[in-house]
Amino acid sequence: MAEAVARVLRATSPGDVLTYGQVAVLAGHGGAGRAVGRVLARSEGLPWWRVVTSQGRLVPGHEARQTELLEAEGGALLRGASRSPRDGGPDPEPPS
Hints:
4 helices, 2 strands
């Protein structure tokens, strides 16, 4: 699963914001949003700041750094318009 999550996040572009659940679906592990969080907690070099909760909340204890990184990339989430299906963004497509 870790490699699948890494592939999804490496394919994101600056300014993209996904939920943990969307990353799980795109990685082929729908319903495993919490596992995505565990992967990110143990991984280095992935753009973790592009992943938020389904409610748009930032990573607890890292809100300031995540805000800084998102703002540097365009910060769609911080302008009140995250790019999630719930907010009118694209629906994630599971891998074929």
